[in-house]
Every structure is written in structure tokens, then in C-alpha cells.
Amino acid sequence: MFNKVLIANRGEIAVRIIRACRELGLDTVAVFSEADRRALHVRYADEAFLLGPAPSSESYLRGDKIIEIALKSGAGAIHPGYGFLAERSDFAQNVIDAGLAFIGPKPSSIAAMGDKGIARKTVSAAGVPVVPGTEGDGALTDDQLLALAPDVGFPLLIKATAGGGGKGMRAVDHIEEMPGLLQAARREAEASFGDGNVYLEKLVEGARHIEIQILADTHGNVVHLGERECSLQRRHQKLLEEAPSPFVGDDEELRQRMGAVAVKAAQSVEYVNAGTIEFLVESDKSFYFLEMNTRLQVEHPITEAVTGIDIVKEQIRIARGRQLSFTQSDVRMTGWAIECRVNAEDSHNNFMPSTGRIAHMQLPTGPGVRVDTGVYPGFEISPYYDSLISKLIVYAGTRAEAILRMRRALEEYRLVGVRTNIPFHQNIMDSHRFMAGQFDTQFVEKRFSMERADQQRESNPQVAAIMATMVAHTQTQRSAHIIRRSKRDTSNWKWLGRWERMHR
Amino acid sequence: MFNKVLIANRGEIAVRIIRACRELGLDTVAVFSEADRRALHVRYADEAFLLGPAPSSESYLRGDKIIEIALKSGAGAIHPGYGFLAERSDFAQNVIDAGLAFIGPKPSSIAAMGDKGIARKTVSAAGVPVVPGTEGDGALTDDQLLALAPDVGFPLLIKATAGGGGKGMRAVDHIEEMPGLLQAARREAEASFGDGNVYLEKLVEGARHIEIQILADTHGNVVHLGERECSLQRRHQKLLEEAPSPFVGDDEELRQRMGAVAVKAAQSVEYVNAGTIEFLVESDKSFYFLEMNTRLQVEHPITEAVTGIDIVKEQIRIARGRQLSFTQSDVRMTGWAIECRVNAEDSHNNFMPSTGRIAHMQLPTGPGVRVDTGVYPGFEISPYYDSLISKLIVYAGTRAEAILRMRRALEEYRLVGVRTNIPFHQNIMDSHRFMAGQFDTQFVEKRFSMERADQQRESNPQVAAIMATMVAHTQTQRSAHIIRRSKRDTSNWKWLGRWERMHR
Amino acid sequence: MKYITTIDDLQYTIEIIDNHQVIFDGVPYEVDFESVSGQPVFTLLVNGKSHEAYIYDDDDGGWEVLLKGALYPVAVVDEREHRLRAAFGSGPTQSGEYNLKAPMPGLVVSVLVKEGDQVEEGDVLLILESMKMQNELKSPRAGVVSRVNTKDGDHVERKHLMLSVN
Amino acid sequence: MKYITTIDDLQYTIEIIDNHQVIFDGVPYEVDFESVSGQPVFTLLVNGKSHEAYIYDDDDGGWEVLLKGALYPVAVVDEREHRLRAAFGSGPTQSGEYNLKAPMPGLVVSVLVKEGDQVEEGDVLLILESMKMQNELKSPRAGVVSRVNTKDGDHVERKHLMLSVN
């Protein structure tokens, strides 16, 4: 049984895991790249070791170095978080071969679910419904895929076999655009997973993305913690999640049916630890297996809020060989939780990534608000890693109360130095379709526009005009003043005039 | 029914109330003193109006101006928060006479409980046990009190009749020191409440301070939300509270008995809205009425955490004439909550107040952590108001988990610019007596010392030595450098030497 | 000083007496304007209403005001300058060349064109990766690639001129 | 540069080569020392252990290090100065006068002594109110009040000399 855990990750999830370890009385070992010497996970951990230069390939993806550090520091276990090495079965195997505990599933389960082709085969064999698409073991050429496309039918999705998180995914409406999109998808997949293989899947329109959280211990107990609604996505990236799903709502029968199928899917690969089964749900409530994420999920906190179960602590307990302290019948969802992913992306400029130093930061606090973050005022947001700055989670008795609370929290959020997508979330919270729970996976891209939303909010151009004018005025005064001081010998108005021209 | 609320307060509680209003869709009006133009409650409110100069007597205690602003701004109700005008029955009456709703009890209830002498009379008449002491209507001279003291018996407490929050309170061991302490108590009472009257109360040794939260609507429903343990005090100021009380623990019978007595006390003054009855509890579980706080309590969040009831929202609903949405049998305490009051007091320097500008601030976040605060990086902590910077509240399944979570949160807390009492709380969390729940109201002052506690923590002087030396070294280098640049003509070492002597 | 302030098609005349008095389209207002701890976060009290906004310089003489989640592009010019512009038209006219500058620091995954190439509007010129996202940067119009200042694998800073279309 | 660093009765010899190498009591260590965003919060990695501390100048040449909730008073002097002190004794000796300075800004509620008064150790000299707390400031020893620089109702700044006992 281990008493020291190495966290093979960075950012908010590394901090989240350090907190769980600390609250369990376990020592923590952080690893960091040269870009992260001052990162929060390095500051909060008991120990910290340098991995290498900023690029992931030279730092957070260096499984060999990480295992070496674990052994050197006397850590007994490694928690991979999400992303990076979390779903690399070879890494998990190497961890175990080094005599360390891997806080996650068996390498065989990761492998089985890692190749989406094989995964689809396995679970459908176990009687789990899957979305129609290309079957088999992935390695298909562009020509083969182009030939198979018509049978799958348009629109369809190109997905990376090694994929996850929307990387290497493209939607195709017509066969003509398919070759270009295949290239793009393979390129992105190659870059993200070092594996350019892709497969095809029918694009089910008007469907929702709903996932089920699973916990399984080493004693054969598998329970599900209910569902999460994840339909609000952009470029296949989740932006906002809620639990429960407004679509499932009070349909406890549907919830339990999806839960049972999820458990079955997990059992089909002898799953252990925390995992998530993603489903595509059609308006008639029929649902299909999409994929299984064999790791901790970004959006796990909303499930923690409504079930009262600390998923990360449970992961560690499971890895220590403990039995789950509860059964399926003990799991109950109460209240409503919503998570907004606050990204360093300028939602007023086509969600373009934004880097820079966080000059000022004020997080929302107060009743029912939780923020998970890996940054702080003074920290530099680099272009090397993903754009997630923090996760803003609210919890309240009902969905309506949760939405009002999220509005309040978003309004309080202050972050200077990088642009964020907070305005996007504010517009979503005001959207009538969102409030009514009427949205699917294409809502953000097809039925939502920042411009339109901005126009619909109670607008106040007069105030904006006054404030901008006062700032401009102050700046003019200050500059004029500086010039005066530095050039006493010449008349002010001339310099002032010149300065103003310079600055236009 | 009102749709706009004026908050007649400042700091964390004003922010807390603004949040509740916003989440109920009500507009908010802030009032502020000249010292608070940039305060968080001014920034978060929909409207804000200047009251006057920094001293409370010229700003937050100006009831007349506040009512005037409420009428001018079209606010339909006033929430007084705690302190300032919260327990002034005349203010409450003036608010009502102005045709506004007062979010709190009736003026008559405030008056009845405001004079501690009358309060003791009233509740004992209603069959509620009170701590032995001087009975009657307060206005006693020093001579009368000195004469009555022996009957009450030593040690005893001098308490302000208009009192609350430990102001104007003094413990007396021998009659000789009583005259001086009477003076001090009257002086402080006069300063705090504009009323120097005091009374005497037996000082029950080894007793605990446990209070019961009450909610009463205008339809005659009165429920209690269980107890709060408030025994950890210094100079009669609460520093840390928890719910439930480790002393009451699983003794549901005691909890319900205290609750019933509290309800009776509230009914004896036809109480409406939120209030708190403070009890002194002896080791044999016999308990006595101390006083009733006819207002929202600083420590209300721990009750919110364990009951899931938003007390401030309930206050507003009650003031809007709604019935309580739950009955006594619906109220259940689950899990454990602890609150640490983070004060601008240097716990390593006899808790001396500390003022200044907050240069850097990083609040703990993550699962089960709530922070209520009215300050932010860049804000100036002035000497005019109380020293409460923020309330750090944690919630977890058990007391042990809550303590571990609080340790984690205290370690994460970063605040630069003013000294705080966070080190005190860290020592308390590590104290075996605290962990065992073995403490009474005198624990902090009689059985606890920062010095001893510091010695007991795992100490690391080598690291402290290295860090201080590196800072000193850097400073020396920098200064030397500056001198070099400004005085290129003279040899460095001479200047360096002189500089070093200068700075010793 | 008097300014002409424009937001989209709205135009206001704002005279600033001091931090506590402005004349807005001829109507005087009592205001209370402060910056929050030296940050580009500003708080304004006007008629008791409390407003807070971020105000950024948009890099070409204008301002962006982020107020309650809505973004307002604001142009502020003083009276005299306004007259000048009215007289001589506003500033230099668009140059014929399109310069593709890096919208953020990142890694050039691949440059899909070379000097002399003919490109159509919407053609992908270059793929820039930042924060794990691959961003396809397209040509806003047809033309000939006149210059290429970067190559695959380059790390570019924000605003670095990567290539031009003429 | 080599320093003699003292904490209470513990004394260490610390030589600083650079931000990455120190020699502690003769033993060399690899260290990584950084300040966090220009604040007096410092992070130190030594042998992989991660430490974070606040470090304050204590106003008379020494340092206070707040590390994991524990406060360490630290004196740092360089070798040469250390030798000097050893030779000539450390600095000026305590003056006979006790100067009561305001420990924080506040309101003088009442001055309980006047010039010429005889006071005993523990006598309350003055009551200072700050943050709604009345703080009784007592005389550390017996003596005669030689000077009173403040009066009831005064607002005093931190470190203001209020009175002296001789």
C-alpha cells in the first residue's frame, strides 16, 4: 500500500489530485516542464521534479523519466490525470512493471477501449448498441474509407481510432470534401496521439451527448453515478456540462437503463477504477455507445456535487485495493450542478487562443460555487498546453437556481491579461433554448451566434462610450504631461498635437 | 412585495447578501463610506450611494441617510446584515415607518432581546433556564454592582446590557480588580453601542458556547436548524465555529431539547425571520440561555452547509411574506462543516490588528471549500472597521475529513500585505485537544499558546535559514548594483561596505 | 476636452470636465470613475448605477469595452481631429496587400503555399497550432503569394508577419 | 558570498554561489529558488522537496520567515560583519528610555498618564482603538513618564511615538 503519489500531469487536474491526496494524508510528487516552474501544482506539492523543456513530447509525455522520478522519490503510485499519458496502455504497463501502482484501469482495458474500432466491436458483442459506422480494426486507407463512406451515409464523422476530446475529428456533408477533411483529421490525430488512423461513424443529427460515470473496484463491484449532459460543444470540444441531464430529467427508468448498459460495457473489458461511457441519445430516447474514456473526466466535479461522492478520492482508495464503500442503491442524485469551462479563448474573436500573463484575477466565491484552477495572478499562460484556465462549478437545489447562481458567478469572475470565453457562457446562460433545455450537439455551431446573443442582451452603449472616453482622456492627459516634463522648451500644444497624430 | 433591496452594511456580509438577492432576481443597492469606494460590495451591487466619511458614526451608522437613499433609489426593503444597525430597534422602526420592509425581526423583538437584562427576565418567565447573575433592567451603578457581585459569586463576567460580540465584556476573578474592569467594560460598551450599561453574570467554568439557529416566518411557523459549536473564542470573540457540535454529537435527544427551548425563547418575543439563541452548556449537558442575537450571524454558512438551507435567501423570502418551504421534520444535519474566521490580526504578535494594502491574494478553492470575503488584491484594509477579512468554510462527510480539508485549505491560502491569524488556525487544526473535541470557551486563552504550538509543529529551520539568506543576498546584490550604476567613478567594494553598514 | 465617441452607428459627443463631471450629448452628469487596483478594470457610478468594465486598447487607436459580458468596439476622437478627418477623410486607404500575421504565438504545423502560388479566397494558407488546437488560416481573397516569412516547425510570436498575398 | 545565519540559538554558515547552488554548513546543495510573481512569496526546491514561504523584513535588519504556518525570526550577516561584531560587540546597547510607538494606525481613546507621572511595570499607559478593538498598551517597566506626544481623540499612524518612560 502506497503513501506517496506522483501526479503525471499539470494544471487544474494536477492541483485537484494533489488536494485529494493531501486530504487522504498522502504525500505528493509533482513533475513539471521548464514552462511550469512556478505553476500551482509545483507550489502545492510536497516534492517537485523537472521533466524537461516546455513541449509535451519533451516533458509531460516522457513516461520513462516520470517512472524514474517516481522510483527515485519513493512514490508508490502514479496518477495520470486526463490527457497526456492517461490513456496510453504501454505507459500503464511500464508503471506496473516498475512495481508501482497505476491509479486507473488495467492496461488491457485501456488498450481494448483505446482503439475505437476494437472498442465498438467488443461492446456490441456484449450486446451494447453502437452508432453505425466502419467496423474492424482501424487501419483503413483513404481509398477504402472513401469507398465505405456511402454505405455509412452522409453526413458522417471522421474520427481518430486513438482519439478522444474531439481531436482528429471532422464532420463530412458531401463525399467531395472528404479527401481534404481526411487529411486534416489524420494530421491532427497524428499530432495529438502519434497515430493517424481514422474510422467513419454516422453523424446522428439532433442527437445529444450524454455520458455515464462508472466506478469499479478490484473486488468486482461496478456502480454508475448517473449521467452528465455534455451536448454543448464547439469543434467537438465540450464547453459546458450539467448533471443531471435535463433531457433524462425525471425519467429514472431511462437513467437506470443507460446506467445498466454502461456497467455492462465496463464489465466487457473487466474495467477497474473510474471511467466514463459516452452515449449518443436520439430524441426518441434510443441511445448508442460512442466510446469509453478510461480515465478521470474533466467534468467529474458536477457528478461529485450531485452525488456527494469524491471521485478522485475513490480512485485512490480503489487503487489501494479497498472495496467501494457504497452500493448502487446508495447512489442518489440530488440537486443540480453546472460546469462552465473557462478557456483562454477569445469568444468575441472566433474563440482564438489567447496567451499572456495573468495580471489580475478574482474568482467567484460564496455559497454553492466551486472553482478548480491551476493558475493564479502573475502566472503566464503559455501556448504549449491546452487553453483550460479553470472550471467554474455551481450547485443548487434546482436547475433554475443553478442557472441563476452560474449567472451570478460568471458576473463576479474577473481575469485580466488573457481573453476568455466567459462572455460566451454568459450568453448561453441567457439563451432561452438553454434555459428550456432544448439543445443538441450542434446547437453552439449551428444555432448560436455571439453577435446575435450580444445584441439580445440589455445593451448599454452610453455607459461603454463614457467609460472608453474617460480612459482615452486620461491617457491623453498623462502622455501630454510626460511630454511636457521631458520637453519643457517647446510649446505643449504642438507636442500634444503630434503625440495625438502618432497614436492614430 | 419588493424587488430591490438596500444592503445597510459593508464587507463580506454585504457581498453575501448581494449574492442572495441576485440569485433571487432582486436588484441591489449598496451604501458606502469614503473609505469603501472601491470595496467589493460597491463593485458587485447594481447601484451604490455614498454615505459619508470613513468613521461608522458618519457613515454606516447613519440610519437617516440610509433610509433616505432607500426611498430615493426605489428600494423596497433594507437588509442590515450584522453589526452596525442590525440590532437597533429604533432603526428597524424607522425603516417600517418609512414604508419599507425590514429584513429582520420586529422592532419589539429586537428591543426585548436587545436589553440583556430584560431578555433574561422574559425567557426565564417563559420557562427557559438562564445563567445566574444580576436580574432587572440594567441601569445599575458601579456601587450597586460591587455590592451584588459576591452573591453572583466569582469568577464572574461583566457584560454590556446593549452588548454582543464580546464588546464591553470582562472576566473578573477577584472583587479588587472589579472597579478597573467595570470602567474598561463601560468604556468599550459606550464606544461600541453608545450605551455604557453593564450587568453581571456567573462565569461558568469549563462550559461550552453552543448556539441554535432559528427561522420563523410571519405565519407563526418557527423551526430550528440545529446547533453550532462556538467555544473557540479569544477575548470573547469567536474565532472558529463548527456544525454540528462535537459535544452534542449523536445525542439527537439533547439537540432536539435545546432546539425546542430555543424555539420557545424565540416565541416568547413573537420572533420573526432569522435569529440565534446562544446557550452555555455544562459538561453534564445542562444548558442555560445566554442571549439571543436578533440578526443574521457571521457563522451562518456552516449551518447552510450541513442543512442545505440558504439562510439569507430564506430571510428575504420571509420578509416577502412567504411561508417557510419546509417543516422541522424536513431539517436534517448531514456531514460536517467548519468555519475559520480569517482576521487581519497578527497571531504571532498577540493578535495585534494589521492594516495595509492587499498586495497579493490567493484563496483556497476546490471541492468542499467556500470562501466569503469582501476584499480582493489591491484593496486597502483600513483601521476603521472590524478585522474580518474572510470566512473560510469547509464541508465534508465527517469531522475528521473536514479537519483534513481545512488543513489543506489553510495551507493553500495566500495573502500578502497584511498579517493574518491563519497560523493560529493551522495550529488549532493540529491541536490534539481540538481533534478530540475536548475544548471549552477558555481553551484558547488558558490552554493554548502559539509559541508552544509552533514548537510542536514539524519544524524546518534549515529551510527558513536558506530562504532568508537568499533573500538577504539578493537584496545586497541589487543594492550594490544600483550603487555601482549610480557611482561608476568609485570602487564598488567601498560603497558596498558602506551600504551594508548603513543598513544595519 | 470634448470628444466624438462612436460605437457602430451610434455617435455621442462627450465633454469631460473632470473625473466627476461629464457632459453627454449636451446633458451634464455627475459621475464617479475609478480604476480597480491599477488594472484595466474600471468602475463607474452614474446616477447611482454601478457599472464595471474591462477596457482594452485594440492596437489600432480604438478601444474595446467589455461590459456585463457584452463587447463594445469604441472609437474616441477629439473634436479637432474629428474635424480634420471630416475634411480629409479618415487615414490611409487599404493597401492592396494582405499580410497574414500570427494571431497568437504558436507552432507553424505546415505552410501550404509557396511564393508565386495563385490562391483563391478561402484557400488554407497555413496551419498554426497553439494550445493543442490546429487553426487553419485562410486567405480572405484571391491573389498571388508575394512573400513567405516562415516554414514548417517554426515557433512564431503573436503578430509575426508569416506571409503576404498580393 | 558567505553568511552566518541565526535562528534563535541555531547558527548556520551558508555560502551562496548562485540561485542554484548553496553550501550549507560545508555541504553543497542544488537548489531552485524563485519569487512568486514579484511578491514576498518565495518557492524553494531543494532535493526535490518543494517549500513555499513568506519572507518579511522585520524593520530592524532581520527577517521573518513564515513557513507552513510557523514563524522563524532569522538574522543574516555576512562573514566580515560577523567578525566585526564578534570583535566589538553587536551594535549600540539598549537605551535607558522606553518609547511607546503605535503598533498600528488607530484612534487614541485615552491617555491614562501625564508627563512626570510615576508608573509601575504593567500599568496601562494608553488605550488605542483600531478595527473596533480597544487595545490597552502597558508599561514594560517602572519609571517616570518623560514625554507625552499624543492626546485623547488623536488619530495616529503606525510607529508614531506616543509617549516615553524614563
Fold and architecture overview:
The complex is a heterotetramer, with 2 copies of chain A (504 residues) and 2 copies of chain C (166 residues). In chain A, 38% of the residues lie in helices and 23% in strands. Chain A starts with a strand and ends with a helix. Chain A has an 8-stranded antiparallel beta sheet with strand order 13-12-9-10-11-14-21-19, with helices on both faces. Chain A has a 5-stranded parallel beta sheet with strand order 3-2-1-4-5. Chain A contains 18 helices and 22 strands. Chain C is mostly beta strands and 166 residues long. Helices cover 6% and strands 57% of the residues of chain C. Chain C contains 1 helix and 16 strands. The longest helix of chain C is centred in the middle third of the chain and has 10 residues, at 79-88. The two termini of chain C are 42 Å apart. The mean pLDDT of chain C is 87.
**What is the gyration radius of chain A calculated from CA atoms?**
25 Å
Dominant shape of chain C = elongated
Q: Share of helix among residues of chain A?
A: 25-40%
Contiguous runs where pLDDT drops below 50 for at least 5 residues of chain A: 485-504
Largest sheet of chain A: 8 strands, antiparallel
Present the secondary structure layout.
The complex is a heterotetramer, with two copies of chain A (504 residues) and two copies of chain C (166 residues).
Chain A: E1 4-7, H1 11-23, E2 27-33, H2 40-44, E3 47-52, H3 63-73, E4 77-79, H4 89-97, E5 101-102, H5 107-114, H6 116-125, H7 142-152, E6 156-160, E7 170-172, H8 178-193, E8 198-202, E9 208-216, E10 222-234, E11 237-243, H9 252-267, E12 273-281, E13 287-293, H10 300-307, H11 311-319, E14 336-343, E15 345-346, E16 352-353, E17 356-357, E18 360-362, E19 369-373, E20 380-381, E21 388-396, H12 399-412, E22 414-416, H13 422-430, H14 432-435, H15 443-447, H16 450-456, H17 461-486, H18 492-502
Parallel strand pairs in A: 1-2, 1-4, 2-3, 4-5
Antiparallel strand pairs in A: 6-7, 6-8, 9-10, 9-12, 10-11, 11-14, 12-13, 14-21, 15-16, 17-20, 18-22, 19-21
Helix pairs in contact in A: 4-5, 12-13, 17-18
Chain C: E1 2-7, E2 10-18, E3 21-24, E4 27-35, E5 41-46, E6 49-57, E7 63-67, E8 70-78, H1 79-88, E9 98-101, E10 106-111, E11 118-119, E12 124-130, E13 133-138, E14 143-148, E15 155-156, E16 161-165
Antiparallel strand pairs in C: 1-2, 1-8, 2-3, 3-4, 4-5, 5-6, 6-7, 7-8, 9-16, 10-12, 10-15, 11-14, 12-13, 14-16
